[in-house]
Amino acid sequence: MFALLPDNPFERITVHVDGNTVGVPPGFTAAAAMLLHGASSTRTTPVTGEPRAPYCMMGVCFECLMQIDGEPNQQGCLVTVVEGMRIERQLGKCKVDE
Amino acid sequence: MSAVHDLAIIGAGPAGMAAAVMAAELRLSTVVLDEQPEPGGQIYRGIERLAATRSRHLELLGPDYALGLELTRAFRASSIEYLSGTQVWQVEPAGRIFYRRNDVAGILQAKKILIAPGAMERPMPVPGWTLPGVLTCGAGQTVLKANGLAPKGRFVLAGCGPLLLLLAAQLTRCGIKPTAILQTTFNRWAAAPHLLGFLGAPAYLIKGLGLLRELKAASIPIHNVSRFAIKGDTQARAVEFVCNGAARTIEVDTVFLHQGVVPNSNLAWSLNLDHRWDDVQRCYHPKLDAWGRASNAAVLVAGDAGGIVGAKGAEFMGLIAAAAAAVDLGKVGAEQAEDRTRDAKTALNKQRAARPFLDHLYRPEQRWIAPPEPDTIVCRCEEVRAGEIRRLVTEQNCPGPNQLKSFVRCGMGPCQGRLCGLTAVEMIAESRGVPVSEVGYYRIRPPIKPVTIGDLATLDVPERNDAVHM
């Protein structure tokens, strides 16, 4: 859906987006990494299962809720990537581990 | 808990940064809490990193964005405490602030609290606005500034307002051309009587005309549309619109929506500040005095959160509010504060005088505020549709937004009404045939940001000796 402009620096941080190992520039948020490398839909709603994706990218809409390093319901647009981060789509309601 | 700060500033956008610089000059012990990893707010988002790592993009984004560098430098140089990456989830009227930083919860105490959470984009509930591939123009600009990302494939910008044209021009400068701009609102006759004030801040006119010229030179069509919908199954595939009476369809991969900005108001509402409805800007503003003091004695508001004034206006408001806090704390005399803020007040008045023209020009019509199509989603989180809200008001006598919560959970999802609040109150007012001010707003309660039980467990709360033992 999105691509990097030319003149971006070459430095990359390795993250895992839905299981795929990819590189993103430093300073990226998890939601930006999804826009660059993820599927078009980053979650499905708990109410009807509709597909959704990042919408505001500034922390107000909560559409980019995703699973980060195994932790569900994270606002992907507010989490800066670090080396080895696992970023995953969130499907429907989250469950509490027994 | 550490010592009590004189002033806590929430938000490090232009208002918060300017306030911090002034507060430090007036020797207030000041702490600034902000959600982002770097200062700048949304308007100057990512400016430090961008200047350091891909300075060529500064030219593409334009001189207004580059202005932020000056302010962030002054902010960094001022002697204040700056907590970046910090989410404030509760502010108590007496000055206690609860926050979360690096996965640890914290509390701090301040005598005065200046809230400067800025603006957010007005909701634009049109058919298909929840589809993947639909983002706000602000989001498009954020990833451009912060990440150097631009949309792939065909895209349109739809709605109205300066940001719509600015994003189109910025992307065009990057060689990424929109297929079309679909303008939903352009009230030239309503705006005309306010032209004089607008010309008082001539930079606006020069910039606006410059953007239009740029878009024209790039042959980007601007269509004035009377109907607009986004179509797609699992993502946006096309936009349908009516232009000059003719129905048209354009295939797209991405859609950017925008119809102006409104105060980012959940923090102000959670503090129970008195608000008033602004019928031109079609949003609530906290009631403030000329210095930014709110209805709660410990609280001041600066920047767009106090009513839309733009980045420059926000800076002046921040500076003025910091001076007011210093006066209230007895750190400077009233006369000295007058002297220090005289220029800022004059400049702020000029900025304010320019707003009515823009506010009227881009004041969205009813159909873009209260969706006429019954299937259009209003509350994105709980998936409450326009027809359902109308039915509840007209058939079930649902009188206000808080009752709407009880009926269908409208406004009770993760975003806590941020993306549906204004739509809901406008729709209820329309269906009841009363002014919005009579309908009120959602009762916003803390926590205003999600907080886990684990976060709460990390709180270092001093033992209370008045605890009741059961």
Short characterization:
With 98 residues, chain A is mainly beta. Chain A is 8% helix and 32% strand. With 470 residues, chain B is an alpha/beta fold.
Explain how this protein is built:
The complex is a heterodimer of chains A (98) and B (470). Chain A is mainly β. Chain A has one helix and nine strands. Chain A has one helix at residues 30-37, and strands spanning 2-4, 13-17, 20-24, 43-44, 51-52, 65-68, 71-75, 86-88, 90-91. Chain A has a five-stranded mixed beta sheet, with helices on one face. Chain A has a three-stranded mixed beta sheet with strand order 5-4-9, with no helix packed on it. In chain A, strand 6 and strand 7 (71-75) form a beta hairpin. The radius of gyration of chain A is 13 Å and the shape is globular. Chain A starts with a strand and ends in a 7-residue tail after the last strand. In chain B, the strands form five sheets. In chain B, strands 1, 2, 3, 4, 5, 6 and 19 form a seven-stranded mixed beta sheet that branches. The model of chain B has no long low-confidence stretch (mean pLDDT 95). Chain B is an alpha/beta fold and 470 residues long. Helices cover 39% and strands 23% of the residues of chain B. Chain B is built from 19 helices and 21 strands. The two termini of chain B are 27 Å apart. Chain B has helices at 14-25, 47-53, 56-61, 63-66, 68-77, 137-147, 162-173, 188-191, 195-199, 202-217, 266-270, 310-328, 334-361, 366-369, 386-396, 401-408, 421-432, 436-439, 453-457, and strands at residues 5-10, 30-33, 81-83, 86-91, 96-101, 104-115, 119-121, 134-136, 149-151, 155-160, 180-183, 222-232, 236-243, 246-251, 254-259, 261-263, 275-278, 283-286, 299-301, 377-379, 384-385. In chain B, helix 7 (162-173) links the parallel strand 10 (155-160) and strand 11. The chains are: A mainly beta (98), B alpha/beta (470). The interface between A and B is large, with 41 and 50 residues.
